[in-house]
Amino acid sequence: MKKVSVIGAGNGGLTAAYHLSKIGNSVCVYDSPMFDTQINAINEKGGIEALEELHECKMLFSGFEKITKATTDIKEAVEFSDVLVLICPSFAQEILFEKMLPHLKDDQIIILMPGNYGGLVLNKIKNDSARSDLKLTFVDAISIPWACRAVEPAKIAIMGLKEFLPMSVFPYSNLEYAKSKIDNILPLRLEFLDNPIVAGLENINFGGHPLLTTLNMGLLENFNGEFNYYRDCCSVATANAAAKMDEERLSVGAQFGFDLKTELEAMNALYNSNYKTVYEFNRASTTHVKINSSPASSKSRYITEDVAYLLVPCFELAKVAGLNIPIVESCIHIASAYNDENYFKSGRTLETMGLDNMNVEEIVKYLSC
């Protein structure tokens, strides 16, 4: 039995703790003392329940799983395992890592779900700290494996599971070590990408979330998000705009020598489908039609996370490569206006990743170390 610590007890963290336990791991789940509702509920009930049905739709992997440890003590969680799965909003990655840093030890692996270039950011924080000699491996997953929701304290619903999960390892020289440590911990096949930049650019939330949310904001706010997001917010025209944004993403990858999948190719592969267009996928995906909710405001993570931590890095990489990506740039401008915040500055920049003042060739070389 392998041990794994899950850092974060939101939708993804609870589902990770449940499913990782279900497949035979000993699991510790952590959340901050300021957000202890889920931890208290797990300790009270002895574990986590996954529903069989929600909104008259069949859910996956239903049942009840005991959790070895649920704690608000970060030291206890970090010391529980050499494999730490960090599942939280991107803005919280740095906050949680700084709490973890005094307790980390050599050769631990931190899996970020989603990565959103976070492994590079956390590596820079470590290098700038008094613990710069600490030997850590950062694994950036393109997303979480599940479509899931926490419906009550210590109770979840799992709508879908990806066929496989692409992820990168940094430093790249630790690839084989990382594979040996995380083999069979997760409930799906793993695909290893070249580096964290590829993992960030391959995040399938890149086009669908920020652009569709931005284009539909009036309806989403006025009707309190009471839609099936993927079915109702994707039209032929908005799908066409998303396709143009996807072309911009692909062009940035190409400038760095990265052969990226199109959004449609990635979604069909991850969900074992064969849709002909992104519009068709969003309207008919058997996983996504179960998600009968939408963002209700511009403060949704589809803006605050996906614009700031996916679009901004892409824009910065494009600048290094000398490319104009007007749809991505426009989406960042509009989201910034919505929330009265300059995401070009507050989002995830090359400086926070430790890649500022590098050209294309230097970035690629740094990532391959």
From TrEMBL:
EC number: 1.5.1.28
Domain Opine dehydrogenase: 195-338
Organism phylogeny: Bacteria, Bacillati, Bacillota, Clostridia, Peptostreptococcales
Keyword S-adenosyl-L-methionine part of the UniProt annotation: no
Origin species: Peptoclostridium litorale DSM 5388
Gene Ontology molecular function, alphabetical: NAD binding; opine dehydrogenase activity; oxidoreductase activity, acting on the CH-OH group of donors, NAD or NADP as acceptor
Domain Glycerol-3-phosphate dehydrogenase NAD-dependent N-terminal: 3-112
Short name of any one Pfam family annotated for the protein: NAD_Gly3P_dh_N
InterPro entries according to UniProt: 6-PGluconate_DH-like_C_sf (IPR008927), 6PGD_dom2 (IPR013328), G3P_DH_NAD-dep_N (IPR011128), NAD(P)-bd_dom_sf (IPR036291), Opine/Lysopine_DH (IPR051729), Opine_DH (IPR003421)
The name this protein goes by in its record: Opine dehydrogenase Odh
